[in-house]
């Protein structure tokens, strides 16, 4: 018997220097979903750890009601687990769906650890162990601090080079420990360059941000990609400098009559509604692209977009029994047979990854009408990604 609720877990690693806004981002991601006025007809967002949930919601309330930003958690690595709990759990449709809960693990890596050398062998070991906990992530967000970009206006290259250098050096300091057993198979493969505090640039879209990075830091981004490629098995399955995202927790404005007073409008967020779609849908799309272009070893393929078959089944309304048979064969088959089955499954995954436009809208409307909350949620995530591209909040390769 399968355990209920059945959980599909996705991981996102968030990297940013101290002060880049990571705590504010996660608080603004979670906080609005807890307000009494919040209404979602498909799912509820729950913090798996009650204490973390209260702390993040308190941060949100202090911003909303007191215009006070949260204190940063200096030198502290945090992982927040959020569960997207689907509605309609007692229906016949719910009993047939591939999983019941989509869990998001949001890993917040201390920015200070990229800026200073460890003070002792014990701290070095702690940093390396913490980084290992991020390796289940399919997606990593690398934050570019909008305030620092503003402070370096006209000389953005200086800041961007320093930022990329810090991340490279932080990774290189852990390289020997992480590669004790050879190249890493499971590792974040999609690295999104994200502009935090995007509200400071109201006239920018994601293309403006991308162009600024390419103009001022193309070589540095490529050096970072090369550094990360040295860590992993099959570096062809790696994306850095292809995906860009604008992020803002709120609109922050200083009052003209009292410059020390900050007005925080939490209704004017940018990009945070794309975190769940990015975590759940983007890895599936990228796995299909890489599998079609490259000969990827099965051990790597299995680590790309964990649960891709389940997500594809839910998106396309494919009978899950069919997918279960594929998975069972992949486990029992000989190594050569596994490769053939993985190749045979590719068209099925591609159908899900490439579901777009009017057909996607039709399937979303049908799922809502049939009260198929999982398919409705996942097709809505894909629609949200499409809208984010149209609105020029996110950019990724076709």
Task: Give a nutshell description of this structure.
48% of the residues lie in helices and 17% in strands.
Question: Could you characterize what this model shows?
Answer:
This protein is an alpha/beta fold and 398 residues long. The chain has one domain. Helices cover 48% and strands 17% of the residues. The chain is built from 16 helices and 10 strands. The mean pLDDT is 86.
Based on the model shown, name its key terms.
16 helices, about 400 residues, globular, eight-stranded mixed beta sheet, alpha/beta, two-stranded antiparallel ribbon
In the sheet with the most strands, the strands line up as 2-3-4-1-5-6-7-10
Strand content: 15-25%
Rounded to the nearest angstrom, the distance between the terminal CA atoms is 40 Å
**Mind telling me the C-alpha Rg?**
21 Å
Number of strand elements: 10
Largest sheet: 8 strands, mixed
What string, H for helix and E for strand, traces the elements in order?
Answer: EHEHEHEHEHHHEHEEEHHHHHHHHE
Q: Which SSEs are present, and which pair or pack?
A:
Elements lengths: L6 E9 L6 H9 L12 E5 L2 H17 L11 E9 L5 H5 L4 E9 L11 H13 L5 E7 H6 L4 H17 L2 H4 L11 E7 L9 H24 L9 E8 L4 E5 L2 E8 L9 H6 L1 H12 L4 H6 L4 H9 L3 H13 L2 H19 L3 H13 L3 H18 L3 E2 L3
Parallel strand pairs: 1-4, 1-5, 5-6, 6-7
Antiparallel strand pairs: 2-3, 3-4, 7-10, 8-9
């Amino acid at each position: 018997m399968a355990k209920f609720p059945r959980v599909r877990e996705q991981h996102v690693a968030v990297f940013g220097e101290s002060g880049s806004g990571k705590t504010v981002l996660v608080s603004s991601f979670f906080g609005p979903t807890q307000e009494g006025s919040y209404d979602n007809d498909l799912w509820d967002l729950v913090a798996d750890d009650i204490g973390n949930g209260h702390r993040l919601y308190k941060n949100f309330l202090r911003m909303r009601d007191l215009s006070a930003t949260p204190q940063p958690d200096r030198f502290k690595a945090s992982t927040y687990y959020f569960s997207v709990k689907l509605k309609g759990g007692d229906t016949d449709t719910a009993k047939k769906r591939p999983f019941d809960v989509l869990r998001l693990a949001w890993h917040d890596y201390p920015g200070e650890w990229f800026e200073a050398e460890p003070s002792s062998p014990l701290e070095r070991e702690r940093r390396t162990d913490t980084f290992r906990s991020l390796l289940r992530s399919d997606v990593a967000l690398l934050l570019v601090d909008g305030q620092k970009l503003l402070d370096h206006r006209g000389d953005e290259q200086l800041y961007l080079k320093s930022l990329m250098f810090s991340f490279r050096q932080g990774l290189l300091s852990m390289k020997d420990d992480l590669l004790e057993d050879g190249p890493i198979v499971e590792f974040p493969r999609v690295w999104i360059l994200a502009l935090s505090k995007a509200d400071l640039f109201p006239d920018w879209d994601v293309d403006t941000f991308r162009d600024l990075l390419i103009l001022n830091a193309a070589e540095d981004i490529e050096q970072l990609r090369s550094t990360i490629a040295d860590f992993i098995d099959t570096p062809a399955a790696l994306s850095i400098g292809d995906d860009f995202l604008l992020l803002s927790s709120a609109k922050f404005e200083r009052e003209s009559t009292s410059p020390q007073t900050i007005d925080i409008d939490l209704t004017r967020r940018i990009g945070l509604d794309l975190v769940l779609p990015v975590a759940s849908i983007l890895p599936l799309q990228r796995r299909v692209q890489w599998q079609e272009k490259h000969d990827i070893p099965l051990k790597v393929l299995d680590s790309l977009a964990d649960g891709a078959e389940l997500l594809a089944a839910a998106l396309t309304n494919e009978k899950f029994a069919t997918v279960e048979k594929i998975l069972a064969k992949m486990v029992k088959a000989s190594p050569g047979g596994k490769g053939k089955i993985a190749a045979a499954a590719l068209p099925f995954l591609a159908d899900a990854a490439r579901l777009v436009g009017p057909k996607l809208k039709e399937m979303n409307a049908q799922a809502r009408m049939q009260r198929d909350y999982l398919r409705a949620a996942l097709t809505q995530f894909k629609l949200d990604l499409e809208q984010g591209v149209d609105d020029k909040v996110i950019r990724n390769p076709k």
